[in-house]
Amino acid sequence: MYNHELVQKTLVMQLAITMSFQELIAKEREQRRLYILDAAEELFFAKGFSSVTMDEIAKKVGLNKATIYLYFEDKDSLFFGIVLRRMRIHLRKLEDCAHGKNTGRERVMMMVSAGFVFTQENRDFSRLLCTAGPERFRDTDNPLAKVILEILIKEVFLVRDMLEEGIADGSVRRDLDPRVMAGYITTSGKAITCTDSEWIATLEAEGIGYQQYVADYLRFIDSAIACPQGEGKSTVTKTSSGVRRSRKKP
């Protein structure tokens, strides 16, 4: 006799088993992908991007090179994968700074400082990004590179938003466009991070260490965005073009 309820339960159980099996396969695949990334990262940090071959990476993880290509189509994809996961961590740190209750100006400076702290905590990664990054990102269609670019744009927008809040609360000057200032701050900060080693050596010969170099930059940026005393708070409005402008309260 046909038992509809029993058949239905059997189908549900089979579906659950199939889904669990698929989830297990997906989890194992992701774990292997991360293992390959870890191995490539260690080699890139130790030897430099250009000196490492796919054969070396395959040997380190105990897989043949063909298997590596199932996860990453080339060495550049490995590089972008390494950069992407570190940039996501960096973005979360900036978002934490942006969600504080300080003034807009203070949050901007917290974000800039957090960027340098991240650099110091990830020196090998920062060196890899500064040396291999410019060439890798130039004229690439790699989808991972596009995701990284989106993160970098988000970082600029975060700084812009904090500057706008600073204009509104009276802590940031309102005579400069916050979009332009955000671009200045993020690009100059990355330039400081990737300062040429010869220039660092020149500064050190003059008795100026890298920590002072960064500290002076932070003071420079802070004074550059600070609202002059006596200007007070501003209101922030949107024009018909959608661009935010601010005006001093009467």
Describe this structure in words.
This protein has two domains: 1-72, Arc Repressor Mutant, subunit A, CATH 1.10.10; 76-248, Tetracycline Repressor, domain 2 (Orthogonal Bundle). The protein is 74% helix and 4% strand. It has ten helices and two strands. It has helices at 4-47, 54-61, 65-71, 75-98, 104-121, 123-137, 143-169, 178-193, 197-205, 210-225, and strands at 234-238, 244-248. The chain has a two-stranded antiparallel sheet. Helix 1 (4-47) crosses helix 6 (123-137), helix 5 runs parallel beside helix 8 and helix 5 packs antiparallel against helix 10. The longest helix has 44 residues, at 4-47. It is flat and about 75 Å long. The chain starts with a helix and ends with a strand. The relative contact order is 0.09. Mean pLDDT is 86; it is low at 235-250.
Task: Label this structure with key terms.
two-stranded antiparallel ribbon; 2 domains; 2 strands; single chain; Tetracycline Repressor, domain 2; 250 residues
Describe the structure in brief.
With 250 residues, the chain is mainly alpha-helical.
List the helices and strands and how they pair.
Layout: H1 4-47, H2 54-61, H3 65-71, H4 75-98, H5 104-121, H6 123-137, H7 143-169, H8 178-193, H9 197-205, H10 210-225, E1 234-238, E2 244-248
Antiparallel strand pairs: 1-2
Helix pairs in contact: 1-2, 1-4, 1-6, 4-5, 4-7, 5-7, 5-8, 5-10, 7-8, 8-10
CATH architecture of the largest domain: Orthogonal Bundle
Helix count? 10
Q: What distance lies between the first and last C-alpha atoms, to the nearest angstrom?
A: 86 Å
Q: How many structural domains? A: 2
Mean pLDDT, as a whole number? 86
Rg calc: 25 Å
String of helices and strands: HHHHHHHHHHEE
Tertiary shape: flat
In this structure, how is the largest beta sheet organized?
2 strands, antiparallel
CATH C-level category of the largest domain:
Mainly Alpha
Reported by name, the CATH topology of the largest domain is Tetracycline Repressor, domain 2
